[in-house]
Structures are given as structure tokens and as C-alpha cells.
Automatic annotation (TrEMBL):
Domain Cytoskeleton protein RodZ-like C-terminal: 198-267
UniProt name for this protein: Membrane protein
Low complexity bias locations: 150-176
Keyword list, A-Z: Membrane, Transmembrane, Transmembrane helix
Pfam family, one: HTH_25
InterPro entries per the UniProt record, alphabetical: Bact_Cytoskel_RodZ, Lambda_DNA-bd_dom_sf, RodZ-like_C
Region Disordered, annotated ranges: 144-186
The organism's taxonomic lineage, starting at the top: Bacteria, Bacillati, Actinomycetota, Actinomycetes, Kitasatosporales
Molecular function GO labels: DNA binding
Membrane-spanning intervals of the chain: 119-139
PANTHER family with a match to the protein in the record: CYTOSKELETON PROTEIN RODZ, PTHR34475
Amino acid sequence: MSIGNLPEDGNSPEDDRLSIGRALQQARISAGLTVDEVSSSTRVRTPIVRGIEQDDFSRCGGDVYARGHIRVLARAVGLDPEPLIAQFDAEHGGRPAPTAPAPLFEAERIRPDPRRPNWTAAMVAAIVAVVGFVGFTLVRGGDGDGSTVADDPASPKPSASAPTNSAAPSKPATPNKPDPSDSAIAGVPADKVTVKLTAEGGQSWISAQDHNGRLLEEGVLREGDSKTFSDSRRIDLVLGNAGAIKLFVNGKEVKNVGTSGAVQRLSYTKGDPEAG
């Protein structure tokens, strides 16, 4: 009694087909190619080609690379690679299920920076405002200049017949000034003799002594300079250029002291000046 449709010898059709390596080897030999020639044309190393022809796929580096080598070698020797790939998958656990693609993440949108204030527009607006204000001011100013003010009928007008006072106001009478010599004498102490020398017409050598003969001053009195001497009783003077000296004794000017270049010896006491 037979079981199923198995042949009498008990072998299935799959047992009669060639292995992957055997099929590639026979096809290479039928094509008249050597292992080195196949390796050179496919760029698959010679040890790997020999291992695949012996159904040793350990040198391929994995099932994925093994499938690639089988496809390349089958095309090089003139075979259809798809049946050989299917046979390899059947013998080695089938083709691995494709992995689901990784979810695509939406790129985070770059938030735009907050808009900066538009300074250009602000400046233009400010300039327009200033120009408008200036123009308005000029227009108002022009209108004000062209307007006329009517005379107020209620305001009084000066009468043409009103008399005018042409007389100038009288100046107050100025008091009589005292004689300079009198005021000068009044300002000098009465209990002393005071002598003042001023060089006005040039410089002069001078000498001044008190009543005890003590020398008060001796030297050149330059033009524009003044010297004042006082004593309780008497002042003795020597003037080298009497015409250049302006002399005041007890606040009163002494006239005609001497001529230019003349040497004068003078003595003065308290009260009115008296030449000694």
C-alpha cells in the first residue's frame, strides 16, 4: 500500500535538484570560466567563490551578503538568480521579515524671532510730524502779520490844540565848591608840618630832613612818583631840579619852586608855607 503520491523509490523531486553551489559550479564549467575569471569579473574574492560552490556560505559575512554573492555569481555564469535565491531562503529559514520604517518626526519649526520695532518708520513719522508742525506755525504766523488792528474808538486821542510845554526844566543851582587850597589845608593836621613832592616835569634828586637833622629821604625822584614827609616842627628840603617838582606844604601848593635844573634849599614849618 502506497502513501500519497510519493515515487516508489521514496525520493521527492526536491531531492533531485542540484544544490546552489553545485548549480553555480556546473554553469561556470559549461561557460568555460575558471574560478579566478569569475572572481575578477564579479569582484568577489576567490575563497568566497570556492566556498559558495561547495555550499559553504560562512565566508559571506551573513545571509544578506550571501544572497548578493549568489545573485552576482549566477549572472556571471548565465543562470537566473531568482530560483537560487528562493532555494537559499528555503534552506536557511526564509527571508527575514522587513522591519517597519522608523517613524518620521516632524522637524521642529523654528520659531521666528519677535519682530523688532521698525525704527525707520518711527523716524519718518516723527520727521513728518515736525515738518507739519513747522509749516502750520509758519502759516499761522503769516496770517497774524497780514492782519490789521482797527483803531479803538473808545481810546482817547491826543488833541491837536493841546498846548505843549516847550520850556526845559530848570537845573538846580550847584553849590560853590571850596577852593582846593583851602580844603587841602583843612585836611592836614594843624600840629604838624607836611610836605609832598611830585616829579611832573622830569626827574629830580631830592633830600629831606626833620628838625633834628635826621635824614628822611635822599635819592632820585622819578617822573610821576611822589613822596610825602611830616614832622612836628620843620622839614628841610634840597631839590636838585626844582623846575620838575610840584610842591605841596601843609596841603597848599607852593608856586614857583624854581627853574629847571636849579638847586633849591627850602625849609617849611606848621601853618601856611613859608620859604626859609
